[in-house]
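Supplementary Text 2. Reproducibility record for the structural model of the 268-residue chain.

All settings were left at their defaults, and a single model was retained for analysis rather than an ensemble. We include the record here because the model underlies the residue-level annotations in Supplementary Table 4.
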Amino acid sequence: MKRARLFLFLLLLLPAPLPAQSQKTLLLGLASISGGIETLYVTKKIGAFKRNGLDVDFLLLQGGSQIAISRFGSSSDFAARFMVSRLGLDPAKDVTIMQIGNQRERMGALLSGSVDGSVVDAPNTLIARQQGFVELADASKLGLTYPHNNIATTDRFVREEPQTVFAFLRAFVEGIAFYRTHKAESILMIKEFLRVSDNAIAEEAYDYYSRITPAKPYPSADGVRTVLDEIAVAEPAIKNAKVEQFIDGSFIAKLDQSGFIDGLYKKK
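Retained model, structure tokens:
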């Protein structure tokens, strides 16, 4: 039985058990040690999991764990609370959310043992795994719709420079298409941008972001509503705000309807 550390993806972290030869490793998260789930322990003890090709270990998700985020109110704060709740814990009572700082500072706190878990973005997820930590939650796979990295401008700029906005989006979707369809070339550019020499780190970033980056980046009404609901907890008046006040999908819709985006994926 091991005590879980948070490698909240955006990861909950724990030293990883060594997998048995040719067996699939599973980590079962337990909110507590209580009656009714001891049959899982019995199943492990009698070797039934191993006889079926499974190497199973248990993670005790104890209350009181300290989870590192950048700062309160940030996307890492929201992601941590969302994922902790999805793991069956109350983020307000069962864990302590700590403001640590940027990715490097949070990783340092995790490695030193001063926190039990941290929200980690790709490609730092690879570094975390290399240090023996295990991912317990990935927000992108838990149904979270959240506008994490956004491109935003003012209403005034949109009104006064519509052609510039359209040209920017046209170029951007072309860049996305290249990124999604030219892995090798994109990895070289990622290495240059992140100033890293390790192909594996760049590939970690590519594999994650190419999966979640849409070919047609329409603004997400659900994502904006998630943010408004979050703000409304402290400022109730925000609950009456209309999502349409904050997004404009007309430019990307025009590009989409023209067939330009689909055409990018038909090129050889």
